[in-house]
Amino acid sequence: MEENLDTKKQLKISLPIAFENLINVFMTLVDTLAISTIGVKELGAIGAMSVVINIMQMSIQTINVTNSSLISKAVGEKDENKIKLLSGNSIILTLIISIITILITLLVMPIFPKLFNVNKICNTYLLIRLAGFIQSSIVTVLSGQQRTLGKQGNILKLRIGAIVINLILDMLVVKIGYGIVGVAIVTVAIDTALSIYLLVKSRKTIIYKFSKKIVKNILDLFKWNFIERIVSRIDNFIFNILVSRMGENEYAVHVILIQVKDIIGSFVQGFGDGITISIGIASGKKDINYMKNTKDISKILINRASIAVPLATFFISLIIMNISLRNLELQKIFFSVLPILLLAIYIEMSATYYYAIIRGVRDFKFLAKRNFISSLIKIVVATILAYTPLGIIGVWVSFLIYCILQKYMSKKRIDQI
Q1: Which of 403, 355, 367 is nearest to 226 (CA)?
Q2: Euclidean distance between the first and the last CA atom of the chain, given in angstroms as a whole number
């Protein structure tokens, strides 16, 4: 009988993925912080385009999650050929989806400055980022594939190197006056280098051969995972539009708060992804005792992280605020929303146990329904509260309600299965 999982082994899976996700988001944060030194208008422009890029990446992240879920099950089944075919067909789908996404974005791009009420330079930034979208997409999917195959440490080191180079080059291009354009070019160059490296690194674990059966397996899960993600992206889109109409100060603070949320959210997601991999492997083994042990270990770690992560969020928030929001009025707005964000992070971290198990058993249909309901309520509440004296605070209260709903619905689902 195969040795059971323990907390040390699970941490070796989850922590590298969590920190890699964290560092990945830091790529965008570094861009944002570099631009924040130029001015509020520029900060608003890059913040708005970060939302658009996040929506663009939705389908690619969906492919990544679907591929990782199927690969983890194949790892449990010890089916190496299936692993290679899954990876190859996921890359083929990634290229097709990336091209379609770029074309759609080019069509709707002219409306973004007025829609977000930001400077037209936002479209210049976005246009340059489009040149690196295919490379970025490949990096996302191949990183996920390598992590699922147990190479979390290598990917983490790669990401650390990328963020250091990004930071140095961003500071340089801003200092010599290239601003948003220079920052965008740096990001594209780094994504290109990462994609080439990962394509070479993963060549022995991928078969680039179209398989109708494999593609069908991917798309069967993809459709529900896509719905899950698209409703979340739409509600975030509306979330940003509501605050952008409140004024430059409110939106500048909102951009930074979103960055903090994304940073911590990426860590939480990565931590959960590690558990999802273990649950997926357990489902492939079809061993009830192994599955029960995996769930027990996961719950212990999530309970500990639920205390540590909100505390870390508080200190990270203070550091980011002192770098990017030095104006007293901006800091006042920031502190009025921070307690809501911290509470939401606690709820999201504690609920990750349920999210990870549901993804691990590939119940993406439920996740799609859950996100549709919770996102709809979030949009309605945010729209109502945005036009009350609460303003930006009311909009963030809607995010807190969203987190509570997601946790409650996920826990109820786990009880059912």
Answers
A1: 367
A2: 26
* Length of the chain, in residues: 417
Cα angle, residue 18 at apex, residues 15 and 22 outer, rounded to 5°: 135
Question: In the structure encoding, which two tokens stand for residue 254, read together?
Answer: 């909102």
How is 282-348 classified by DSSP, letter by letter?
HHHHT-HHHHHHHHHHHHHHHHHHHHHHHHHHHHHHHHHHHHH--SHHHHHHHHHHHHHHHHHHHHH
Check if the beta carbon of residue 357 is closer than 8 Å to that of residue 414. Answer: yes
Q: What is the DSSP letter of 388?
A: S
User: Taking the CB of residue 55, how many other CB atoms lie within 10 A of it?
Assistant: 18
Count of alpha carbons within 13 Å of 404, Cβ hemisphere only?
Answer: 11
Q: What is the pLDDT of residues 262-274, one digit of tens each?
A: 888 888 888 888 8
The answer to whether the predicted template modeling score (pTM) of the entire model surpasses 0.85 is no
Helices (H) and strands (E) in the chain, counts: 15, 0
Radius of gyration of the chain (CA): 21
- For residues 333 and 276, the answer to whether their CB atoms sit within 8 Å is no
Q: How many CA atoms lie within 13 A of 128 on its CB side?
A: 19
Q: How far is the C-alpha of 17 from the C-alpha of 147, rounded, in Å?
A: 7
3-state helix, strand, coil in the chain (%, to 5): 90, 0, 10
**Cα–Cα distance list, 57 to 97, 210, 289 (Å):** 10, 23, 37
Phi-psi region of 78 (alpha: psi -120 to 50; beta: other; left: phi over 0): left
- The H or E element spanning position 70 is helix 58-77
Q: How far apart are CA 14 and CA 26, in angstroms?
A: 18
Residue type for position 130: L
Distance between CA 300 and CA 65 in Å, rounded? 24
State pLDDT tens for residues 7-61. Answer: 888 888 888 778 777 776 666 667 776 777 677 677 777 777 877 887 788 888 8
